Amino acid sequence: MSPEGFKPLARKSPAIELIDPLYSRGEGASLVLGLRAERKHGNLRGAVDGGILATLADVALGYSPAFSTEPPTAAITANLSLDFAGAAKESDWIEARIDFHKLGTRLAFGNCYLTVGETRIARASAVFLVAGTLGPEG
After folding, report:
1. What does the alpha-carbon distance between residue 20 and residue 17 come to, in Å, rounded to a whole number?
2. What are phi and psi of 33, to 5 degrees?
3. What are 89-124's pLDDT values in tens digits?
């Protein structure tokens, strides 16, 4: 179940389907992605695995600039780094909020903040190679 205002993420890749269900609110620069942590997202210590959090951040950082242009911009992750400051556990609602710095003709840069409630659990920083535009299939 997602909080009010969130709807199931419409555009999904096979990789996203592995961590689904993802939810979204807003678009472009105001895009927020959400994930209700399930058992399948956890590690042996009962926390959401760092790889799941990295995937959530990568998707949010890629979707924000992609769908802030018309037609959507295709971008390939060139660098992604995460700093973990906390953890999430099963049943937590995790939000990914974007602070996008620049969408250029060759490169795009941004940060993503992952939170559980008011607690920031991770910061991701990414550089993307701009690769043209996305077709209707995404």
Report:
1. 5
2. -105, 150
3. 999 999 999 887 777 788 888 899 999 999 999 999
CA–CA separation, 108 vs 93, rounded Å?
28
Q: How far apart are CA 10 and CA 81, in angstroms?
A: 26
> What fold, for 7-133?
Thiol Ester Dehydrase; Chain A (3.10.129)
Q: Work out the number of other CB atoms within 10 angstroms of the CB of residue 100.
A: 18
User: Could you tell me the pTM of the whole model?
Assistant: 0.89
pLDDT digits (tens, 9 = 90+) for 49-67: 999 999 999 999 988 777 7
The residue extents of the domains of the chain are 7-133
Distance between CA 70 and CA 66 in Å, rounded? 9
